[in-house]
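Input record, target 12 of the design panel.
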């Protein structure tokens, strides 16, 4: 598969799974713990820029190497590790710098980032 098709397939899978999580499954959790920090509307420009950049990293560092290795196991494990590190960058920084940042949100986000990226890499592979 060429790189452009791989990128957009990964984008579609990641975005679809993440929107279900953010829009349906976890919405009440985030409002409960972070409601005072949440904007009334999503800044879609910022969100889309994030998705385009993040997917580029996932394809470059995880999915493309997994395809070269011909290893679904590598895709899933490396995807999970990539997700853990990326989500930890955000959440642990918040935990370190934002007063009263909820530890439970960090734990949930780290688990979600690990799962989301492992699943996306595995499905895309």
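The sequence produced for target 12 reads:
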């Amino acid at each position: 598969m060429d790189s452009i098709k791989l990128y957009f397939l990964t984008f579609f899978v990641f975005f679809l799974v993440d929107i279900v999580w953010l829009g349906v499954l976890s919405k009440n959790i985030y409002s409960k713990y972070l409601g005072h920090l949440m904007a009334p509307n999503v800044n879609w420009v910022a969100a889309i820029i994030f998705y385009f950049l993040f997917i580029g990293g996932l394809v470059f560092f995880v999915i493309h190497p997994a395809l070269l290795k011909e290893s679904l196991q590598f895709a899933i494990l490396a995807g999970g590790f990539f997700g853990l590190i990326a989500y930890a960058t955000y959440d642990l920084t918040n935990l370190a710098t934002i007063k009263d940042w909820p530890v439970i949100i960090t734990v949930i986000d780290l688990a979600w980032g690990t799962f989301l990226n492992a699943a996306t890499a595995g499905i895309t592979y």
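Residues 14 and 120 are 6 Å apart (CA to CA).
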